Amino acid sequence: MWLKGATALAAVVVVPAAAPVAPGRLSVIVALGLPLAGFFAPDALLERRARARAGALRGSLPDALDLLATAAAAGRAPLSGLEEISRGEGALARELSMLVAETSCGAPQRHAFETLRRRVPAPELAAMCGVIERSRRYGSPLADQLLEQASSLRSSQRRQIAESAAKAAPKIQLAVALLLVPSVLLMIAAGLLSHLDSFLAGI
Fold first, then answer.
1. Are 31 and 19 within 8 A, CB to CB?
2. pLDDT tens for residues 21-57?
3. Exposure string for 77-110, b = 16+ CB within 10 A, e = fewer
């Protein structure tokens, strides 16, 4: 909250310099809008960073699941595989390093996974924690479940990329229609006008 107040106060300080520069009634909008923008900007920036972090975490999860599955197939404990992944780079590695640190300090595995779920409310990560916990409690085969989850995540990511590309196509077409086509027409018109005198003289 203090950060929002500070940015709003900074915007208020800027208003006396910015408002007179704005033409006409726009100065009133600037005077009112800058403090509001300063108040809400930190939330927007934090939300954007959180989305980017969640996207990076989801993107690295399938490879992490593959590594965990390989470790499980080799007879290693899940925490051993998680510890190995935590030595890497990225958001997922940092979160797993905190989980490993918790268990190293004596926290039960179930509690460490629950803390991870609360810290990172991503359903994909919660599913991984659930698979590991079920395997620990009931002895279900872990490697196959992890590989299946990794495959499902990759399919979902490919589908999302295809959907994003399909949504981007109309925007690109609109940009071409509004920007490139008029520019080309103006260039053609300029070329014709530059030769108009010689054309009329020939007539």
1. yes
2. 444 455 545 455 555 555 556 666 777 776 777 777 8
3. ebbebbbbbbeeeebbbebbbebbebbeeeeebe
Closest to 129 (Cα-Cα) out of 144, 147, 111: 111
- Note if the pTM is more than 0.70: no
Between CA 117 and CA 123 the distance in angstroms is 9
Q: Which residues contact 168 (CB under 8 A, 6 or more apart)?
A: none
Burial, 195: exposed, middle or buried (Cβ in 10 Å; 0-12, 13-18, 19+)?
Answer: exposed
Q: How many CB atoms lie within 10 A of CB 6?
A: 13
pLDDT tens track for 157-197:
888 888 887 887 777 777 777 777 677 777 777 777 766 66
In whole angstroms, how large is the CA radius of gyration of the chain? 28
Question: CB under 8 Å to 136, separation ≥6 — which residues?
Answer: 78, 109
**Which tokens go with 81?**
């595989």
DSSP letter assigned to residue 23: -
- The angle formed by the CA atoms of residues 94, 60 and 163, to the nearest 5 degrees, is 135
CA distance 66 to 70: 6
pLDDT at residue 89 is higher than 60: yes
